[in-house]
Specification:
The protein has 375 residues and is of the alpha/beta class. Helix content is 39%, strand content 19%. Helix 10 links the parallel strand 8 and strand 9.
Length: 375
C-alpha cells in the first residue's frame, strides 16, 4: 500500500456558537475553521484527521500540511507509521516556525488507515485496556461570567450525568475563590471538581487558590502558570496537597524533564499536543514507567477527540476524558462523542477511528479545499 495524495477540506463554524448567548467580542475571529484532512492510498483506503482552528489558524495549518509534509508522505506505506513518525520528528528540528502538532495530526490518519486495513478499531491495535472511559465536562469561561451562571452550569452538568466538572477561571484569587466555593456547595462533597487557570496566575495568587482547592478537595489544579515556568510549578506542587496538572503545551521530548524535576503531579496531553497517537502512547509509556497519571486533554476537533477516545481505552493511566463545548462535536453520524447513561464515552467498534463522517454536512460547511495528488 502507498500513499497517493492528500485532500483537506476547510470546515467553517461561526464564532457566535462559541459565545452564545453573549455577542462575539470585538477583534475576535468571526469563524472557527477546522481542516479535515484525508490521506489517500492506492488501495482506496482513506485515513481521516483534523486540526484545531479557533483562533484563525485553520487555513494556515492546512496549507502547512500540504506545503511542508506532502512530499514526506506520498509514496510511503501508511502502515509503517513509526518510520514516518520518526522521519517527521527529525524534520521538526528545522521547522522553527511550526509545532509538532501539525504532523502529529497526520499520524492519526495513518492509524485510521492501519485500523481499516486490519478491520480493527485503533484501540484494539494499541492493545485495548477497557471499553469505556469516564467523562468530565469543562465549563468554558464565557458560560460562567456570574455566580448564578456558575451555579446553573454545575447543576446542569451533574444532571446530564457527567462524572466530574472542570471550571475555567482566570480572574485571580479574589474573583475566583468565591466561585470555587460556590461550585463545591452546588456539587456537594465528593463530586469531582477541577480548576483550570489557563496559565495566567502569579505565584502568590496560585498559592492562595491552591490552599482553597486543598480545603475544598478539588481533584487537580491545572496550568496555573505557563508550562515553561517549571520552577514555579515545582514550588507550587510542593506547597499544596491538590495535584498540579500541567505540561499540556510541552513537546514530547521535553516532557521527561517535568517528571524528573518533580515539577508536576499529573501530566496533561492528547493526540494533538503530543505528536499523534504514536506520540501520545509514547508519553503514556513514560508516565507509567515513572508513576505519573496522564490526563487526556480535549483536542477540540471531533476526529482528534475520537482518536483520544481510542487512546484512553488503551491505557489505565488516564482517569477521565474531557468533554468541552458542543461546538467541537460536528460532522459525524451517531453520537460517539456524547456521554451515555453511565457517564462514559464508549470505544467505537468499527475499523480505524470507527466513525462515519456525514459528508453532506461537511460539504455544506466547506469553504475551501486543497488537493495534492501523485496517482
Amino acid at each position: 500500500m502507498k500513499i497517493t495524495g492528500i485532500t483537506t477540506k476547510i470546515v467553517r463554524r461561526s464564532s457566535e456558537q462559541w459565545y452564545a448567548p453573549h455577542p462575539v467580542p470585538a477583534g475576535y475571529t468571526p469563524y472557527f475553521d477546522f481542516p479535515l484532512t484525508i490521506i489517500h492510498t492506492d488501495e482506496g483506503i482513506e485515513g481521516y484527521t483534523m486540526d484545531y482552528g479557533p483562533l484563525g489558524q485553520g487555513v494556515a495549518s492546512a496549507y502547512a500540511v500540504h506545503d511542508v509534509y506532502f512530499n514526506d508522505l506520498v509514496g510511503r506505506d501508511p502502515l509503517n507509521h513509526e518510520a514516518i513518525w520518526q522521519q517527521l520528528r527529525s524534520k521538526q528540528r528545522h521547522l522553527y516556525n511550526f509545532r509538532e502538532a501539525i504532523w502529529g495530526n497526520l499520524d492519526v490518519a495513518l492509524w485510521d488507515i492501519k485500523g481499516k486495513m486490519a478491520n480493527m478499531p485503533i484501540a484494539v491495535l494499541l492493545g485495548k485496556y477497557r471499553d469505556k472511559v469516564p467523562v468530565y465536562s469543562t465549563c468554558p469561561p464565557q458560560t460562567i461570567t456570574t455566580e448564578e451562571e456558575l451555579r446553573r452550569q454545575v447543576a446542569l452538568k451533574i444532571g446530564q450525568g457527567f462524572q466530574g466538572i472542570k471550571l475555567q477561571l482566570s480572574g485571580g484569587s479574589k474573583a475566583d475563590i468565591p466561585k470555587l466555593r460556590l461550585a463545591r456547595e452546588t456539587a456537594g462533597e465528593g463530586f469531582p471538581l477541577m480548576l483550570d487557570s489557563s496559565a495566567v496566575l502569579s505565584f502568590e495568587d496560585a498559592l492562595k487558590i491552591g490552599y482553597t482547592l486543598d480545603e475544598l478537595s478539588y481533584e487537580w489544579f491545572e496550568e496555573p502558570f505557563p508550562d515553561a515556568h517549571i520552577l514555579q510549578l515545582k514550588k507550587l506542587s510542593q506547597a499544596i496537597r491538590t495535584p498540579v496538572l500541567a505540561a499540556e503545551t510541552v513537546g514530547l521530548f521535553e516532557l521527561p524533564h517535568y517528571m524528573i524535576e518533580g515539577a508536576v503531579d499529573l501530566i496533561r496531553g492528547d493526540v494533538h499536543h503530543k505528536s499523534g497517537i504514536t506520540g501520545a502512547m509514547k508519553a503514556i509509556a513514560m508516565c507509567e514507567m515513572m508513576g505519573f497519571g496522564f490526563e487526556i486533554h480535549t483536542a477540540s476537533a471531533p476526529l482528534l477527540d475520537i482518536a483520544n477516545l481510542h487512546v484512553g481505552c488503551a491505557t489505565r493511566a488516564s482517569r477521565f476524558l474531557e468533554s468541552h463545548h458542543p461546538l467541537f462535536r460536528f460532522g459525524l453520524k451517531g453520537d460517539l462523542l456524547e456521554i451515555r447513561e453511565d457517564g462514559c464515552l464508549h470505544c467505537p467498534v468499527g475499523p480505524g477511528l470507527g466513525v462515519e463522517i456525514d459528508w453532506d454536512w461537511i460539504d455544506d460547511h466547506t469553504v475551501k479545499e486543497l488537493k495534492d495528488r501523485n496517482d
